[in-house]
Design a protein that fits this description.
It is found in: Membrane. By secondary structure, this protein is an alpha/beta fold. About 10% of the residues lie in helices and about 25% in strands. A hairpin with a 6-residue loop joins strand 2 and strand 3.
Length: about 375
């Protein structure tokens, strides 16, 4: 009995000092969400019709809270989804309005996703950079304008920055290199200008960097080659000039490299085409010159190798026939000469892969050597 009595007393003491479980979100969080809602209009799905009652942690579509204190942690609203509400409506989402600065009072927010609504405009509230716990900022697929907040680098815990497919302008903020936890960066399909930060290589955790379809100028920073986790780099459809850093060819996990439709000059680094880890390489529509590096081996494996619309000269390296696999290869619209090697992979490529060169001959071209 004494043991049981002591045990009961202990339970009472633990209950007395333990924090009580909060059953509804704080009024301040609820007010911030309602202000966010009031700045938006979603006419077709009715997702905001669920945002009623005093407890924003329960059955408010896209909102989730910390179970211990009921503070709002996540806002996840996607206009493209397989959620039942989309299936029932038989359409994707459409939303207009803007992102309210009221979001900035949600100081426990870790995830903010307001993506693919097609019509949301206005700017990214600069005060979002004051949210100390924010890990994911995803506003892809809208009509957002203005600049990326200058103090974006203050978000030390940010792992995903996705602002692609908007109308963002201005330069990439210098502070972006302070996002040392960043893994996924998508600035694609905007109107971003200026140069890539020279010390972009400080983002050592980054695995994807998508900056294509902008108006970025200047050279490719050599520091990028120090991002040893980087697997996907897309700088295509910009105005980037200068040569391709040879150091990119020594990146250990880089598998996709898209540099097409820029103003790159100089020779293709041998280290690049000799990197057996690269799977997709598109260097087309630049002003690259010189000879094709003769560096292909049985470890070479390209799903895509596109070098078309450049100023390459000389012969096609015979070592290409030693490659383990080459799916799509395009060498058209260059100044290549000589006979096209026989055998794999040339026996499954079409003539369009070799047209508009100076003096290539042999199959699959109709020109006899």
């Amino acid at each position: 009995m004494e043991v049981t009595g002591v045990y009961l007393v202990a339970l009472v003491l633990v209950a007395a000092v333990s924090p009580a479980v909060v059953n509804s979100c704080p009024p301040s969080d609820r007010e911030a969400l309602l202000a966010f809602k009031s700045a938006l209009s979603e006419p077709y799905l009715g997702i905001f019709k669920t945002w009623t009652g005093t407890d924003c942690c329960t059955n408010w579509y896209g909102v989730s809270c910390d179970p211990t204190d009921s503070r709002v942690n996540d806002i996840i609203l996607r206009g493209e989804s397989e959620d039942k509400i989309f299936e029932k409506a038989g359409r994707s989402g459409y939303m207009t309005g803007s992102l309210s600065p009221s979001l900035c009072s949600l100081d426990r927010l870790t995830t903010l996703v307001v993506a693919d609504w097609k019509g949301i405009s206005g700017e990214i509230p600069a005060c979002l950079t004051s949210l100390p716990h924010l890990r994911i900022l995803d506003v892809i697929g809208n009509q957002i304008t203005g600049k990326i907040p200058a103090d974006i680098g203050k978000l030390e815990k940010l792992t995903v920055l996705n602002v692609g497919d908007n109308k963002i302008t201005g330069e990439i903020p210098a502070s972006i290199v302070n996002l040392r936890s960043l893994m996924h960066l998508d600035l694609s399909n905007n109107g971003i200008t200026g140069v890539l930060p020279a010390d972009l290589g400080k983002l050592t955790m980054m695995s994807r960097a998508l900056l294509n379809r902008n108006q970025i100028t200047g050279a490719i920073p050599i520091s990028i080659s120090g991002i040893y986790r980087l697997a996907d780099l897309d700088l295509s459809m910009n105005r980037i000039s200068g040569s391709i850093p040879a150091q990119l060819g020594s990146m250990p996990v880089l598998s996709t490299l898209n540099l097409d439709s820029n103003q790159l000059t100089g020779e293709i680094p041998a280290s690049l085409l000799g990197n057996s880890g690269l799977n997709i390489v598109n260097l087309s529509r630049n002003s690259l010159d010189g000879y094709l590096p003769d560096v292909f081996t049985p470890r070479t494996y390209f799903s895509v190798l596109d070098l078309s619309f450049n100023k390459l000269k000389g012969a096609i390296p015979k070592s290409l026939t030693a490659a383990r696999y080459i799916g799509h290869m395009d060498l058209s619209n260059n100044h290549l000469c000589g006979s096209i090697p026989m055998g794999f992979p040339f026996d499954h490529l079409e003539a369009s892969s070799f047209t508009n060169n100076d003096c290539l001959c042999g199959s699959p071209l109709m020109r006899v050597c």
